[in-house]
Design brief:
By secondary structure, the protein is an alpha/beta fold. It has 2 domains: 3-63 and 160-340, QueA-like (3-Layer(aba) Sandwich); 67-145, QueA-like (Thrombin, subunit H), CATH 2.40.10. It has helices at residues 138-145, 186-194, 233-244, 254-263, 303-312, 314-326; strands spanning 27-31, 38-42, 55-59, 61-63, 67-72, 78-88, 91-97, 107-110, 115-122, 128-134, 171-174, 198-204, 227-231, 249-252, 273-277, 292-296, 337-340. The strands form 3 sheets. Strands 2-1-17-16-14-3-12-13-15 form a 9-stranded mixed beta sheet, covered by helices on one side. It has a 6-stranded antiparallel beta barrel with strand order 5-6-7-10-9-8. A hairpin with a 6-residue loop joins strand 1 and strand 2. Helix 5 (303-312) crosses helix 6 (314-326). The longest helix is centred in the last third of the chain and has 13 residues, at 314-326. 40% of the residues are buried.
């Protein structure tokens, strides 16, 4: 299976640069995974496709303003730092630019010394371990100095940080938003609950892998970066009970999907707990947990396009994407949505 098999041509103007004012007014394409049939709707109509007894699974991770701009102490060289993983209290794995200016021992100052960092190690793929020092509460300083780590294909400045955050975000830790969830409003979630649909939450802190392209020719040789997940006992029970009672488990986003598939056993039982997952889902994968998926439109040749192709079939997905381009859907993080059922 070649990476090039997952290429499609996307006009640049279809990449959504800004979120819509009304989250639920995005367009929604529905895709029947067994027939490939597609229909066109508005996202708030998703509730018509959810049935009493179904379970909607949300990823309640919260994006931290993980992009910091500082300067190298002693030289004033500009340094950009993206926080990836908290290793322990004040030690973070980071991506730095330019890397050649950040050798071990380099000191970086942010916000005129409000926050300082020292490069203490160089790890996998050139990422830097940085030890931070500050006075006060790290999260408050980060909120003051940091910027939302928008993907590289978004060139517009984000006016409101909360628009790169789901309305149900709770647990700090992501370097990117679980973007399928950006379409939901509190009102829409309430209407879904009133219909008899259960709503469960899991946590997966989205890492750099979201931005990383597949660089190998053979799909099976690609290595996913690991991401930390948590599934609480009562949430696992809610999801398992749904399966047992014949309801569908509907994942909101590929991050929820990867969490559920990582924590499910071969019998389709979901296990509570926490850990790291580097699961890579591509065509040929047998889904153990999810029955349907709400997702955005993904980059050509990306691991996320491979995941949806595993669920709906590559031919169905590529045909649906061609139609989305023809119909001028908005693509990627701030774009429109697809419901695969």
């Amino acid at each position: 299976m070649k990476t090039a098999d997952f290429y499609y041509d996307l006009p640049k103007e279809l990449i959504a640069q800004d979120p819509l004012e009304d989250r639920a007014s995005s367009r929604l394409m529905t895709l029947d995974k067994s027939t490939g049939a597609v229909e066109h709707h508005v996202f708030r109509e998703i509730k018509e496709y959810l049935l009493p007894g179904d379970c909607l699974v949300l990823n309640n991770t919260k994006v931290i303003p993980a992009r910091l701009y500082g300067s190298k102490v002693g030289t004033d060289a500009k340094i950009e730092v993206l926080l990836l993983k908290r290793k322990e209290n004040n030690l973070w794995e980071t991506l730095v630019k330019p890397g050649k200016k950040c050798k071990i021992g380099t000191q970086i100052s942010f916000g005129e010394g409000l926050l300082t960092g020292e490069v203490v190690d160089v790890v996998e793929e050139g990422n830097r371990l940085i030890q931070f020092r500050y006075e006060g509460v790290f999260e408050e300083i980060l909120d003051q100095l940091g910027q939302m780590p928008l993907p590289p294909y978004i060139t517009h400045q984000l006016k409101d940080k909360n628009r790169y955050q789901t309305v149900y975000a709770k647990h700090d830790g992501s370097a990117a938003a679980p973007t399928a969830g950006l379409h939901f409003t509190p009102e829409l979630l309430e209407q879904i609950r009133e219909k008899g649909v259960r709503i469960a939450e899991v946590t997966l802190h989205v890492g750099l892998g979201t931005f990383r392209p597949v660089k190998v020719e053979d799909v099976t040789e690609h290595h996913m970066h690991s991401e930390f997940y948590i599934i609480e006992e009562e949430q696992a029970k809610l999801i398992n009970d749904t399966k047992k009672n014949g309801g569908r488990v509907i994942s909101v986003g590929t991050t929820s999907c990867r969490t559920l598939e990582s924590a499910a056993d071969e019998q389709g039982i979901l296990h509570a707990g926490s850990g790291w997952t580097d699961i890579f889902i591509y065509p040929g994968y047998r889904f153990k947990m999810i029955d349907a998926l709400i997702t955005n439109f993904h980059l050509p040749e990306s691991t996320l396009l491979m995941l949806v192709s595993a669920l709906a079939g590559k031919d169905h997905i590529m045909a649906a994407y061609e139609e989305a381009v023809r119909e001028r859907y908005r693509f990627f993080s701030f774009g429109d949505a697809m419901f695969i059922s």
